[in-house]
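Table S4 entry, mata_hmg.
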Amino acid sequence: LDKKNLLPCPRSADELQMPEKGTVPREMNSFIVFRRQLAHVAKLHKTSDDGRVISTAASFIWNGASKNEKRSYSLIAEELKRRHREK
């Protein structure tokens, strides 16, 4: 996986928002938004569809990222939280 596909986040809040399924899900924090993007990239590159592997990789990459690199995910998470509260 190429870090350029992850940091900063190349997708918008609209693309990362969870689909509605009747009940309002818990709002996503910045790490969960990042993990969702990582799963998307892994699926595109047919790297892995094992959630445990993706979560472990997400944790490793996230912990090594700078605050500046994480900022795009924080902004998306804030937007998703705002939308969540409007429901």
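The mean pLDDT is 87.
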